[in-house]
Amino acid sequence: MRCVNRWLARSRAGLVGILALLVSVSALAHPHGWIDIKVRLITDDQGRVTGLHQTWQMDPFYSLVVFDELNRVEGATLDEGLDQLGGEIRNNLAGQGYFTRVRVDGEPQPLGEVSEYTAMQRDGRLTFIFILPLADTPLLDGSTLEYQVYDPTYYLEVVHAAEDEKPLDDALVLRGMPECELAVLPADPDPERVLAASRLDVDESGEPGLGRYFAETGQVVCP
Asked: Distances from the Cα of 56 to the Cαs of 76, 121, 128, 137, 165, in angstroms?
């Protein structure tokens, strides 16, 4: 998984120690963690997409390290620490395009700035929820919207929430437009890139944009 945010960087040393106790050395290849996501497309009355409501759940190991750090801060509650952490995550993701790429009929869509976000503890995992607005508001009618959410460095793997390798019903949601077909398309990386990623150690980085080859694609097709 990707090592691009300060909050991840601070917890990396602790995470590696935990992982070393639980997995073999051969398993310590990229990615080093994961984020389960759920995405809900936000539309207006005209069927234009105004934003992507995203819920990210960090993997249990990262969550454990982060919660432990926050609980060690004197004079602050966990909720206060999470409020500050949410701001740090948002600010760091802003410089990375919020890990999100959106296309409509193949055309890249400009993104707005995130102003609505929160970090919380949910089911024992660090959860970051935010609304990513689109700078333009493309019309879905007669269009195909696709998005990918990924860490460019592939230190962290970002996948849609799933059970038995099948995306959950609420992993990708669009309300009010039942005629549209929704799908989460799996990644299909070249075997050579899979091998190259597996050889990267915890302190190494792959080629620029490595994560996009391992990214799932959320797809919304509206007739």
From this structure: 24, 11, 5, 23, 18
